[in-house]
Specification:
This protein is α+β, with helices and mostly antiparallel strands and 508 residues long. It has twelve helices and 16 strands. Strand 10 and strand 11 form a beta hairpin. The longest helix is centred in the C-terminal third of the chain and has 52 residues.
């Protein structure tokens, strides 16, 4: 086993350091997996089985981090209660593994829960022979539900080219537009002339292994920070309240970028001189550190861009690197035809397009949460209305998509931010409502089981004709049957029956 020193440095530019390969004691690649958090890996049960029976205890199962420098390895064992081997029809096939050591600083796979969506473009990384260190499949598409009980989603690989095949099982399926992980590869269609494979969506994984639910969240935010283009006189960025504008752009961030902020006049300066003034205005050592850890804490305003010695170099060599690292950058031009405006506007539009992709996924997730919450409420007989905001969010998304160049990008960006916040709030309201319904259903089932259990005891003791017990049993069962969404109404009635049965049994 190769040791690691606690470092979480990934390969240069690697956005998925959570990718792992499962190998046996001989070094043979068995399949793929995903780090979810520190010392927990998600994979397919059949991948673990391929290492032999001893692998279930961790004796011959290794996990290799292919996205980290040095590709460190560690031993892994199946977590008790989180082992769902494949059934005869292929359902299940999920395992959570406990690693022998923690990788605390490696971000886990960003799982998101949504229904059996179609037409989303995805990519994935697996370990088919002879690719010992893995290979990508890009631009595959989700085709819709498949498999027994509709538990899988069909995955079509583009042909000709690399396709999803043996060695990809356990691999995270990554939404190309947002970087979110939508599911896990489970099997292939063995005809090599067809690029067919299947994945288990996150929703189904959580249903089989509820422990996974703690790692399910929202799609990742775009790593690039906001680029704010201001057209007006040179002092407008200051007069209109630079930091107040940053706070609006970064609403919800930890410190709203007030700690590290600088306003630099680019007039007559080279790109290098503007960069020096940015560093001097903030503290070069601190800005480098914070850009790596909390980029939302960095905000820079660059005024007089068109009067710099080389406006496009200022944008390309100073502004863009700051924005790409996650800082908020405001650039000011005197007029709409100033040098560099077109380039800055294009970057604004590109960033808006990436946020639109994320918003589209968020709206899909809200719709899915509505559907499953309504289904849960209907099964429970709940009369409480389920929040229904997805239709409005879908209309707003459509309006933003159709905005094009007709609407100033800054207005689109602000509308995007507001719609994102509303979508996230709507989703979490539904998640909470589903959890409440789930708790009610669990309490109802608990009381029903208790009532039936004691009724069975009474029957076994020959108390079927006991009129007093019958008089206690009927209202308890009626309350559970007719008001399943209000189990506490029945709780007292159930306990009265239980006490009655106990008294009779003790008397017998």
């Amino acid at each position: 086993m190769r040791e690691h020193n606690g470092s979480a440095e990934g390969h240069a530019g690697d956005p998925e350091p959570w990718r792992v390969c499962l190998v046996d004691s001989s070094g043979r690649a068995l399949g793929a997996g995903m780090l979810l958090g520190e010392s927990t890996v998600l994979t397919c049960a059949h991948v673990v089985q391929a290492a032999g029976e001893e692998a279930l205890s961790g004796a011959h199962l290794h996990v290799r981090f292919v996205g980290l420098d040095g590709m460190p390895e560690t031993l892994a064992s199946v977590r008790p209660g989180c082992w769902v081997p494949p059934s005869d029809d292929g359902r299940g096939d999920i395992a959570l593994l406990d690693l022998a050591e923690a990788f605390a600083h490696v971000p886990g796979a960003p799982l998101v829960r949504l229904g059996a969506v179609r037409d989303r473009v995805v990519h994935t990384y697996g370990f088919p022979a002879p690719h010992r260190y893995g290979v990508w499949v890009n631009n595959a598409e989700l085709a819709g539900p498949a498999g027994a009980g509709g538990e899988w989603i069909q995955l079509n690989s583009p042909l000709p080219g690399e396709r999803v095949r043996r060695g990809f099982s356990g691999a995270g399926v990554i939404d190309k537009a947002t970087g979110a992980v939508l599911g896990m590869v489970v099997t292939e269609y063995t005809d090599e002339r067809a690029g067919l494979a299947y994945l288990i969506p996150v929703e189904v994984i959580v249903r089989h292994v509820p422990d996974v639910g703690r790692w399910v969240g929202e799609p990742p935010r775009p790593s690039a920070g906001p680029l704010i283009v201001v057209i007006g006189d040179r002092d407008s960025a200051v007069r209109e309240g630079f930091l107040a504008q940053v706070r609006r752009e970064r609403r919800g961030s930890r410190r709203t970028a007030e700690r590290l902020a600088a306003i630099v006049d680019a007039t007559g300066k080279t790109a290098g001189e503007v960069a020096e003034h940015v560093s001097a205005g903030i503290s070069s050592g601190e800005v480098v550190t914070v850009l790596e850890t909390n980029p939302e804490d960095v905000a820079v305003a660059v005024t007089g861009v068109e009067d710099a010695r080389a406006p496009e170099e200022v944008l390309t060599d100073v502004v863009r690197p700051l924005v790409d690292k996650g800082a908020t950058v405001l650039v000011q031009f005197s007029g709409p035809d100033s040098p560099g405006v077109r380039l800055a506007r294009r970057w604004e539009a590109e960033r808006n397009a990436r946020r639109l992709d994320r918003l589209a996924l968020l709206v899909d997730m809200v719709e899915h949460e509505e559907d499953r919450t309504r289904e849960r409420a209907a099964r429970l007989g709940s009369r409480t209305a389920v929040p229904a905001g997805s239709a409005d969010l879908r209309l707003r998304l459509g309006a933003l998509r159709s905005a094009g160049e007709r609407i100033e990008p800054g207005r689109v960006r602000r509308a995007l931010a507001a719609t994102e916040r509303d979508a996230e709030a709507a989703r979490w309201a539904l998640v909470r409502r589903y959890a409440e319904l789930d708790a009610l259903a669990a309490r109802h089932d608990e009381l029903l089981g208790r009532l039936r259990g004691y009724n069975a005891k009474a029957t076994d003791a020959g108390l079927m004709e006991d009129e007093e017990l019958a008089g206690l049993y009927r209202p308890a069962m009626a309350a559970l049957t007719h008001r399943p969404d209000e189990p506490e109404v029945a709780a007292g009635l159930v306990e009265r029956y239980v006490r009655g049965v106990r008294r009779r049994l003790e008397g017998v």
